[in-house]
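Our platform keeps sequence and structure together, in a single record for each protein. Such a record has a labelled line for the sequence and another for the backbone structure tokens. Nothing more is needed to write down the fold, since each code stands for a local backbone conformation. For reference, a complete record is included directly beneath this paragraph:
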Amino acid sequence: MSASARAWHDVPRPLFALLGLALAAQLAWHARLPPPEARAEALPAPPSESVARALALGEPAVFAKLGMLWLQAFDTQPGVSLPLRALDYGRVIDWLALLLALDPEGQYPLLAASRFYAEVPAPAKQRQMLEFVDRTFREDPDRRWPWLAHAVFVARHRLHDQTLALRYAEDLARYATGPAVPDWARQMRIFVLADMGEVEAAKVLLGGLLASGRLADPNERHFLMQRLEALEAATAKDAAPSP
């Protein structure tokens, strides 16, 4: 052993006591500190489309898909999980609009808008998101009709706003006219009218559709004929004098 090294038993006991007191004081001080708090970061504003295209390095569709993955994961941050209703929906819509502009043929932003963000239990934010879906649907209605059809469902069954549901259903019937759009999507306004008690208007639309010869599917035609008969029976029952 070198002359500079000392055995443990040569260390004065008061020094051991002092070290023990220092350690105890440090532990006590840390115990009094509040636990570390995870703080949610606000969703940043998106870049301009021109900046985003420059960042995409010639692959805007790939950039849009990666951007959607990032956006949908934003509510789960290190140490904290945000409820969707805590997000700034104005910012969310700005991001969705940008990513849709980068990849107009992509369906992911509108799928997320109608089936993810529009399902949050916050009516004002649901309406905000549904309006975005309706607005962007009109830019390419023959491909984007499924998301407005789901908006009709949300308005009817989540918001219980039949007037809003009817407006979206009428937009479907008016703008989504391509051969790839199924007839049931254009018929949604008939069922919304029936829900609203507008049975006569629903009967007129349904009868006109059946008479038009546009329904090639016999099962669909059979279903709609049953629906028309049910509406007529309900009208007759309501018109019948009470005994």
